[in-house]
Amino acid sequence: MSDRSPDGSGTVMFWNLYRTGFERHAGDDTRWEAQRELILRERPMVLMVTEAWCWDLSDEALFTDTKKALGMDGVLFRAKTECHQAILWRPGVELRAVDGYPPELHPWHGFGCAVLELPGRRDPVRFVVAHLDPYSPLNRRIESDRLRGFAGPHAAGRTLVAMDANTVPPGDPEPDWSGVPAHRLGNHLLPGERTADRAPVGALLGEGLFHDVGARARDRRPTVGVSEEGDPARRIDLFLASGPLLPEVESYRPVADVPAGADGRPASDHAPIVLRLGAQA
């Protein structure tokens, strides 16, 4: 049976949109049209994104256009790095609360939260979108601590964290670091270490905290391939579900058939990840 709901009900998507905001701001919608095609095909009830570059400019013109193009409402979480994040939702979803820190309090891109009431569910779900530092393992540990303090108190309820962790979680295969240029190894490995630092994700996992949805589904496929800079393929785009929400996750998958733009460029350097929430337990 397909894990894709015909009407998108209960479907949640997370996607790193890559450089598309810069391109749209410059008048090139080619990559965005490929992204829009995929999002409309999947019809998520809730869409969480990062790398929403330029969405804040000109009175949030790109963000407004995105909501109109997708038929969704949403909230934008501004980052001091300008690598913004957003949570969007379809008609029928009710916004109950928005939470987050001022951009200047985040070490890097940061995180934000929207509490949403979904059709057919008794209790609202707290959706958290986060993006950890791509350049510093030490910063990622600090950001993870901040995120744990922000989202952790709500792990006793129904909470879903979607994040670009920029590192692999506990239990995933060790990436192949042999092709990474020397000046980039420090982006991934702590000083003196030869293996990935899994602590930023690990600090968010465990009894009373969150659970790695992909690992629970036994699907540890990479969500990024080998990058232009030589960084290895690995699974860094993650859904972390609280204990009460985890039994309601019916399916999970990284989207494999991502369309290219009309000019042949990939829609993103990240695969979107999708899960489907079933009935409330």
Automatic annotation (TrEMBL):
InterPro entries: Endo/exonu/phosph_ase_sf. The lineage of its organism: Bacteria, Bacillati, Actinomycetota, Actinomycetes, Kitasatosporales. This is Endonuclease/exonuclease/phosphatase domain-containing protein. It comes from Streptomyces levis.
